[in-house]
Every structure is written in structure tokens, then in C-alpha cells.
């Protein structure tokens, strides 16, 4: 593979559809994906932007959260990751990668739809890392339903609990631990602005994440703490192949973007690094679209 930093046409830098059919149960595993996503394992190079920081990333086992966790470690941060117990194999790989960079890794398996776990995970991260400077609330549930009649109350409840309630519980529990200079980053979606017909509950939560984070940023800046949103477009992650999209849509995932391909998780990691770092000192209350040319937010 060409080095990520070599001048090249970004449209052909990574795999393009068609992709093999590959449905997986929830939670999907990155290791089961074909082609394998690039989370920066070999391709992300750090330059000391987060030296000595202590970061917590929910959904840090795979996909966008994994790319952020790897990049943070390579930039010099100790990193705690939260994931579902069924994702232990993906999480073990991330822990090994963080440790290979000489940083501390804290593994926090559990279910963020449980309020008590959300409060405990913050306490455990603070204890394990010895503090908290960067909070990435990124875990998400996305299950497509072709018609409003198919969106059950259980679906609606689970999606809101995972994507919105957990955001509130974790942010609320973390606030007393964050000091001036700290950074909160949430993961919304292009779905907040251009919702798909098949993602009623999911798109609703993503619009909610944007509003919540912008409101929170107004409070946190009073303490010198920044808060921002990242709004991804199509990224090649297990969220999509484990029911986020129908299996046929995964086979041509990213085709409709002007790039004609999905983004790879490593391609969004630099935005998380920027927002986490002190280089983003004047950046708060913003939404960063990383959509492969859709121009949202
Ligand atoms: P992913 O499946 O790799 O990551 C999502 C993670 O959420 C999982 O790894 C899992 O650890 C965690 N999670 C889900 N339910 C949980 C629960 N109940 N308790 C604890 N953890 C739970 O997929 P991803 O695409 O990297 O998703 C990361 C974020 O990016 C999500 O918020 C998603 O909505 C958002 N996003 C993804 C895309 C995309 O195209 N992949 C686009 C826009 C936004
Ligand atoms: Mg995962």
C-alpha cells in the first residue's frame, strides 16, 4: 500500500465497491470484514500532539472509535476504551496496539444502555488512567427498518438509550473530572442533516447529538472545556454490515458519494486528534462533517 501521506488521488486511495456480501450479527466485528478496514494500525503516524493526555473512547474496539483510539495513543495519550462484552476479540487487538506504542490501555467492557454502567465506566476510566482530559462519546446503534411499521418500541428505546441517553449519562458523570483544556467529542452523522428513509430512529438520535453537544459546549466553555461534534458520512465499519444497512446496500456502500467509495476509519482519525488537542484551542461548539464530499454541516 502507498504511504497515507504520499500525494495521490484520494478517490482511489482505498477500496471501492462492489464488496462481498457479508451480513454479521450485532455487534459486528471489524475482524470479520472483507476488505479489512484501515483503522491506522500500520498507517497512522503520530507527532506528539497529545503527549501525556488521558482519553476515554466509547466504541473504541472497532471502526471510527478504534481509529481515534489508535491515533490518540500514537500521539502520546493513554487510552481507555468501552465496548460490548461480545467484542472482546476486537478490543484485545486495540489494547495490544495502544500498549505497543508504549501507552497505557484500559479495557472497559459493558453495555452503555445501562445508566449505572455509564457512571461506573467514567469512574473506572479516571481511576485506570489517573484522570481524564479527552472524552469521545462515539458508541452507536444503527439498525435499518424499511418502514415505520417495523420500528418497534424496543428498537426506538435501544437506539435512543445507546446514542442519546448514554451520551448524557457519560458526559454528566465526566464533567466533575474535566479541567480547563479538556475536550469532549461526540460522533453524530450526515444522518442528522440528510436522514435516510430506513433510519428513522437512528437519524433522530444523530440530530439530537448535534443539538446536545452544541448546547453543552456553551456550558463547558465557562470552565475552559471545549465540546465538538464529528459528523461522518459513509465509513467502512461493522456497524453497517451488522444491520446498519441491508446486506445488498453494504455491497455497494459508498458508491453514491462523489468519491465513489466509503471512507476508511483512519481517514477521520485526524479530525478527532485535532479536536482533542490544544491546537483546537479556538474550536468549540462546531460540527465537523467528514463525508467524502457531501458538504453537510
Ligand atoms: P462500529 O460498530 O465499529 O462502532 C460502534 C461501537 O459502538 C461498537 O464497536 C460498540 O462497541 C459500541 N456500542 C454499540 N452499542 C453499545 C452498547 N449498548 N454498549 C456499549 N457499546 C456499544 O461502527 P462505527 O461506524 O465506527 O460507529 C461509531 C460511531 O460512528 C457511531 O456513533 C455511528 O453512529 C457513527 N457513524 C458511523 C458511520 C458509518 O458509516 N460507519 C456514519 C456516520 C456516523
Ligand atoms: Mg465494535
What keywords describe this structure?
35% helix; Rossmann fold; binds nicotinamide-adenine-dinucleotide; seven-stranded parallel beta sheet; 297 residues; alpha/beta
Brief sketch in words of this structure:
The chain is an alpha/beta fold and 297 residues long.
Show the helix and strand layout.
Elements: E1 54-58, H1 63-74, E2 78-83, H2 88-100, E3 105-109, H3 115-129, E4 134-137, H4 153-174, E5 183-187, H5 200-220, E6 226-232, H6 238-244, H7 247-251, H8 269-276, E7 287-290
Parallel strand pairs: 1-2, 1-4, 2-3, 4-5, 5-6, 6-7
Give a description of the structure.
The structure is a single chain. The protein is of the alpha/beta class. The chain has a domain at 48-233 and 269-280: Rossmann fold. 35% of the residues lie in helices and 12% in strands. Strands 3-2-1-4-5-6-7 form a 7-stranded parallel sheet, with helices on both faces. Helix 1 packs across helix 8 (269-276). The chain is globular, with a radius of gyration of 18 Å. The mean pLDDT is 98. It binds nicotinamide-adenine-dinucleotide and magnesium ion. The site of magnesium ion has 7 residues, from loops.
Strand count: 7
Helix content: 25-40%
From the coordinates shown, what is the CATH architecture of one domain? 3-Layer(aba) Sandwich
User: Cα distance, first to last residue?
Assistant: 32 Å
Low-confidence stretches: none
- Side-by-side strand order of the widest sheet: 3-2-1-4-5-6-7
Give the names of the bound compounds.
nicotinamide-adenine-dinucleotide, magnesium ion
CATH class of one domain: Alpha Beta
Q: Using the alpha-carbon principal axes, give the shape.
A: globular
* Helix-strand pattern: EHEHEHEHEHEHHHE
Number of helices: 8
Given the helix and strand composition, which structural class is it?
alpha/beta
Largest β-sheet summary: 7 strands, parallel
Amino acid at each position: 500500500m502507498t504511504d497515507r501521506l504520499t500525494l495521490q488521488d484520494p478517490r482511489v486511495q482505498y477500496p471501492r465497491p462492489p464488496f462481498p456480501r457479508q451480513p454479521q450479527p450485532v455487534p459486528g466485528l471489524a475482524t470479520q470484514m472483507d476488505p479489512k478496514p484501515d483503522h491506522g494500525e500500520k498507517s497512522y503516524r503520530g507527532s506528539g500532539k497529545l503527549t501525556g493526555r488521558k482519553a476515554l473512547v466509547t466504541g473504541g474496539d472497532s471502526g471510527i472509535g478504534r481509529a481515534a483510539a489508535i491515533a490518540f495513543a500514537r500521539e502520546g495519550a493513554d487510552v481507555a476504551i468501552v465496548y460490548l462484552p461480545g467484542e472482546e476479540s476486537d478490543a484485545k487487538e486495540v489494547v495490544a496496539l495502544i500498549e505497543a506504542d508504549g501507552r497505557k490501555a484500559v479495557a472497559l467492557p459493558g453495555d452503555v444502555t445501562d445508566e449505572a454502567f455509564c457512571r461506573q465506566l467514567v469512574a473506572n476510566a479516571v481511576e485506570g488512567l489517573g484522570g481524564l482530559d479527552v472524552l469521545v462519546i462515539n458508541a452507536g446503534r444503527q439498525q435499518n427498518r424499511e418502514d415505520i411499521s417495523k420500528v418497534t418500541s424496543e428498537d426506538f428505546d435501544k437506539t435512543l438509550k445507546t446514542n442519546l441517553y448514554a451520551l448524557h449519562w457519560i458526559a454528566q458523570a465526566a464533567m466533575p473530572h474535566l479541567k480547563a483544556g479538556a475536550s469532549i467529542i461526540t460522533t453524530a452523522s450526515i444522518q442528522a442533516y440528510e436522514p435516510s428513509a430506513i433510519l428513522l430512529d437512528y437519524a433522530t438520535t444523530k440530530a439530537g447529538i448535534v443539538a446536545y453537544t452544541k448546547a453543552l459546549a456553551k456550558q463547558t466553555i465557562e470552565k475552559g472545556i471545549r465540546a465538538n461534534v464529528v459528523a461522518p458520512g459513509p465509513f467502512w465499519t461493522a456497524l453497517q454490515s451488522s444491520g446498519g444497512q441491508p446486506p445488498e446496500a453494504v455491497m455497494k456502500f459508498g458508491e453514491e458519494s462523489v468519491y465513489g467509495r466509503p471512507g476508511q476509519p483512519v481517514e477521520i482519525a485526524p479530525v478527532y486528534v485535532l479536536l482533542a488537542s490544544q491546537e483546537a484551542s479556538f474550536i468549540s461548539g462546531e460540527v465537523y462533517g467528514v463525508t467524502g464530499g457531501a458538504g453537510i454541516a
